[in-house]
Write a structure and sequence with these properties.
- The chain has a domain of about 100 residues.
- The protein is built from seven helices and no strands.
- The protein is elongated, with a radius of gyration of 19 Å.
């Protein structure tokens, strides 16, 4: 996951706004989130999917596939998320009750990546960090030490 030779990152090229938008709306559904006065639960909440998408797209290279990006966010890459949202919107507009919920997958805000995924991202994060540090002091060489714990 090295940075592209041009210095660009994924967010410079594209972001799947349809899928991220659908998941953003879904995470606001009543009953899915803790009430505001339960701070002990609120602090454990993961960042909203739109924020996670922006951060992730700012460290991945532009050749990252749509499938990989959605997988890292916890949005199903093998289902048409936008079509499911449109189906539900049409049913609501026509006051039709659907026999089954078109959203049959786990919500992205409940997703915790398996261990290999964060390890894969470390290289991109390190490169991103080097780029930021070089902006402040271009003549210095920086290195990161891997945590021993």
């Amino acid at each position: 996951m090295n940075r592209h030779k041009s210095g660009k990152v994924l967010i410079d090229e594209w972001v799947p706004t349809g899928e991220v938008g659908v998941e953003s709306v879904q995470e606001r559904i009543v009953g899915q989130n803790p009430v505001i006065n339960r701070l002990h639960v609120w602090f454990a909440r993961r960042p909203p999917v739109a924020s996670r998408a922006a951060v992730l797209a700012s460290i991945l290279h532009p050749e990252t596939t749509r499938e990989e990006f959605l997988r890292l966010l916890g949005i199903p890459h093998d289902r048409n998320v936008v079509a499911a949202a449109e189906k539900l919107a049409r049913a609501k507009a026509n006051k039709v009750r659907l026999k089954e919920n078109p959203f049959t997958w786990e919500r992205a805000f409940k997703y915790t990546p398996p261990k290999p995924q964060p390890d894969e991202l470390m290289e991109s994060v390190r490169e991103w960090g080097h780029r930021i540090l070089r902006l402040f002091n271009p003549s210095r060489k920086f290195s990161y030490r891997r945590d021993s714990g």
